[in-house]
Amino acid sequence: MIICNEIERSGRSVQRHLARLLLFFLMEGIAALLVAFAALFVNLEPAWSAQSPGTAVIGTGDARSGSLLLKTGDGTTEATRLGIDVDVTVSGPTIRARITQIFRNQTPNWVEAAYVYPLPAGSAVDSLKMIVGDRVVVGEIKERRQARVIYEQARQNGQKAALTEQQRPNIFTNALANIGPRETVLVQIEYQEAVAQTGNEFSLRVPMVVGPRYNPAPVVQSVDFRADGSGWGSTSSDPVPDRDRISPPVLDPAQNAAVNPTRITVHLQAGFPIGEVKSHHHEVTIESPDPATRIIRLADGVVPADRDFELTWKPLAEKAPSVGLFREHVGDADYILAFVTPPAVEQAAQKPLPREVIFVIDNSGSMGGTSITQAKASLIYALGHLQPSDRFNVIRFDHTLSVLFPSAVPADAEHLGTATSFVAELQAAGGTEMVPAMRAALNDPPDADNHYVRQVVFLTDGEIGNEQQLFDTIAAMRGRSRVFMVGIGSAPNTFLMTRAAELGRGTFTHIGSVEQVEERMRGLFAKLENPAVTGLSVTFSGASADLTPSPIPDLYRDEPLVLAAKLDRAAGSVEIKGRIGDRPWMVTLKVANAAEGKGLSKLWARRKIADAEIGRTLRQTAPEEADRTILALALEHQLVTRLTSLVAVDQTPSRPAGEALKFSQLPINLPAGWDYAKLFGEHTQPMSPPTERRAETGEARAQLVAATRGLPVVTGAAGTVTLPKTATDAKLKVMAGGMLLLLSLMMLVFNRFQIFPR
Amino acid sequence: MHRPVILVRVLALVGLLLFGQGAYIHAKALLAQILLERAFAQAISSDRHTKPWSWADTWPVGRIEVPRLHASAIVLAGSSGQALAFGPGHVELTPDAGERGVAVYAAHRDTHFRFLRDVAIGDEILITRSDGKAFRYRADRTAVVRFDASGIDPLTEGYELVLSTCWPFDAVTPGPERYILHATMMELPAAREAAPQLNRPSAPRMAITR
Questions:
Q1: Any B CB within 8 A of A61 CB
Q2: What is the CA radius of gyration of chain B?
């Protein structure tokens, strides 16, 4: 019975043990679930690594929506935000624009912000205002180095300071020092410009973004031979010595929302009843207070700064006025501005002169996206319009060069077919080495047939940093060729285009969208096929005059002659003589009939400065003499140039001593239609062999590619997508954990049962 | 006699921890998707980046559904480890679904893309973007590739989709191979240009006149 009792007792204790076992496992199960849920609320990620003092590094989790983060090596920082307001007033022939840049510092630090932005190539920047709260500080024109010194000193002292410098005639930088924590500072600049006219159409362009430039590596030394053919020249090492100043970080549109919201308002008072008004790349609303005035605003209110704003208008009457004369009295001199459009003389019934046309097309990475489509369409249109008596050749370039035929061939069906398929197959990739392409195009062997008119049609977006080298090439090698530049895309380098066309005695046509191709190429062909107005000369009777442009360039069909002159008195008349084809042409304008204009003195001074720069490039004036002329004109008329800058300093220091100043380079958008991967693909090399990204560690990746720092973008083999690691060790852990639990259970049971049989 | 008990307790504890960690990964994935569904519904209606919870460093950008399998998951921006723990991620530098090129979504084989092994060629995949637009894709190809030689060029001319996860499905340790399911959009969007546009008419045809 004892055995029975024992068994009974042990039976009950077995039951108790089993019950306790079950309870034990139940508790374990609950604990496991609790651990799982608790883990959701515990962030087990490693903390951000130590940051440099004075830098506010925030985790991406701290970002509020809508803030712009710059990822750097040790975390992310918030960028200063920028808003832009553009107010343009067109009064007859002149345009006055006021650009207000609103810098908003969203960090708790003192910040120095820098912004790189474009302005029209012929604009005269003459005014800078810095607005802090309700205080307005007016800027002064100073010689460039002096302005920089003043700015740097103010920056050191903790004073608010603004500096506007010209990097190229169409690229400017604004630097703004000592913006306080959470503070907003406004910088306002104003410029003057002349209205552009082509035939019946008047236009203005407000560029909004600087396209990323290809800056050739400094390893290549460029050689400049003197134009006097003496065989001696000089080498220069870096084609783009100031590459740092014209290369702001560009945001990848696939990863970031567009930045730099811009508002545009245009008050258009053309001076004659206005017909059609058109904005080519933005939707606008147009009000008409009276027949000769329009107010144009963006339909969306605010747009990102990613493509140029182009506005054209036509007169209500059938024909545009072919003559315009305006004058202004400033100081002790009179300034006049004259627009004269020569009559369009129709070609006589004889056959037009046979032409030799060399087409050059840019297929670099910056043309990727919509630009290469526009360029190809333009070129195929052009090929289709060649006469059978013409000769042609096609050159394509990126950082390499290919010439389709060894020399110019007749434009017959077979050659045109080959050329058309060659062009149709072009892909955009690679760098932009424009100088060798221009050299190849201008290469005109001395035994060539001279009764062909030689024309070079150059299709590009002009996004290079070594513009001066290109100008030097054209100046040295132009010979009898005429260079016609076709600017492609939403943000072309118009300074390069206009200066290259001036030096090459041709014209500049801009094509900003595929819809514009046919119309604009037709216009270009009208210019190519019809005789230019040559041999232009201007005489003033009744006053002595300082005339610009000098020498007067040839005019193409539909192009007006725009003259600016400084007269000692507003009397007498202006007589213009020239030849259209082989027919003489003459027109006389009386100064007394001129209407009042505004800002004409600045336009004259700006044009004189451009003349001096061209003289310097053509080696007709010595560099020092050209610089002296430019500096004198700039200081007299208060203009920002290569040698002068605007600087504004607030006298009261605002940043307390001891506070660090953080530098913030504002990023810009990629120009609309560009292809980010094709553009920055040319710089990619894998930083390290691609490793699988582990699920636990977060990598700080540079989301902004700063061309100046040359940070490569990490990609897998040959630009294919690297697939992330998508396997957790959940299963392994569950299995291992389960096994261990099972093992412990077995051991427990085994132990229990072992102690029973005694 | 105590040593075995201590050993048992230690083993039990370790087993519990491991089991718990494994369970938490699944629980995290499950719970996150619930919060993400709410955030995604908000994102569609409000057109802003809606954070699913306040310390999240990512936000929902779309929903993947396979109607035949009744499978659905909310996709997050980016494909960092953080994002993938909560849902499928949209691999960087690939376009969004509905845009030209190849949109690539990746997720863990044992949590959000567990259904991927059951997707057959010809199945319909529905992607709803955070702006409300929905696009239908048909699965047409599967492949097993190395993670760094995927052969996926995100900038093709067509409208394509790739769903990617680790291979083989039943392994317990991670490896370098990925299973990709390729799909093509079923109906092409009407007359779209590659560039962002403001209601411009479609491009005129360029004809060679001779």
A1: yes
A2: 21
Contacts of B115 in chain A (CB under 8 A): none
**CB B28 to CB A721 under 8 A?**
no
Residue B61 with chain A: CB contacts under 8 Å: none
The residue ranges of DSSP E strands in B40-187, in sequence order, are 60-66, 71-77, 89-90, 101-106, 124-129, 134-146, 159-166, 177-185
Q: How far apart are CA A375 and CA A369, in angstroms?
A: 11
- pLDDT of A637 higher than 50: yes
Determine the Cα angle at A123 with ends A117 and A126, to 5°.
90
pLDDT of residue A79 exceeding 70, the answer is no
- What is the edge-to-edge ordering of all strands in the sheet holding A583-590? A533-541, A573-580, A583-590
* pTM for this predicted structure: 0.60
Pairing of β A110-118 and β A171-179: antiparallel
Residue of chain B whose alpha carbon sits nearest to that of A280: B200
Report the alpha-carbon distance of residue A602 to residue A190 in Å, rounded.
12
Contact A370 B193 (CB under 8 A): yes
Give me the pLDDT at residue B29, please. Answer: 87
**Looking at residues A551-555, what average pLDDT do you find?**
84
Count of residues for chain B? Answer: 210
Backbone angles phi, psi at A43, to 5 degrees: -90, 110
Provide the H-helix boundaries in B55-166. Answer: 81-86
**What pLDDT is stored for residue A295 in this prediction?**
95
- d(C-alpha A702, C-alpha A686), whole Å: 13
pLDDT digits (tens, 9 = 90+) for A503-546: 888 999 999 888 888 888 888 888 888 777 888 899 998 888 89
Classify strands A355-362 and A573-580 as parallel, antiparallel or unpaired.
unpaired
Q: Is the pLDDT of residue A349 over 60?
A: no
Cα separation of A214 and A707, whole Å? 9
A252 neighbors A676 (Cβ within 8 angstroms) = yes
Chain B touched by A414 (CB under 8 Å): no
Please state which of the ranges A96-110, A169-183, A211-225, A243-257 shows the lowest mean pLDDT.
A211-225
Judge: B113–A726 Cβ closer than 8 Å, yes or no: yes
Quote the pLDDT of residue A690.
38
Percent of chain A with pLDDT over 70: 81
Residue of B nearest to A258 (CA): B196
A3: confidence class by pLDDT, cuts 50, 70, 90: low
Q: Flag if B108 and A696 touch (Cβ within 8 Å).
A: no
Among residues of chain A, what percentage have pLDDT more than 90? Answer: 34
As a residue count, chain A comes to: 758
Tokens of B126: 């529905």
Say whether pLDDT at B150 is over 50.
yes
Alpha-carbon gap, residue A414 to A391, rounded angstroms: 13
CB nearest to B23's CB, from A32, A413, A723: A32
- The answer, for A525 touching chain B at a CB cutoff of 8 Å, is no
List CB contacts of B130: < 8 A, sequence separation 6 or more. Answer: B40, B43, B44, B47, B60, B61, B62
Q: Is A116 helix (H, G, I), strand (E, B) or coil?
A: strand
Q: What's the 3-state SS for A473-513? A: HHHHHCCCCEEEEEEECCCCCHHHHHHHHHHCCCCEEEECC
Distance CA A115, CA A162 (A): 11
Among residues A687, A352, A373, the alpha carbon closest in space to that of A511 is found at A373
Question: Do B151 and A720 make contact, defined as CB atoms within 8 angstroms?
Answer: yes
CB A307 within 8 A of CB A369: no
Q: From the list A45, A254, A727, which residue is nearest B93 (CB)?
A: A254
pLDDT at A101: 92
- pLDDT value at A60 more than 90: no
Q: Which residue has the higher pLDDT, B115 or A46?
A: B115
* Cβ <8 Å between B145 and A723: yes
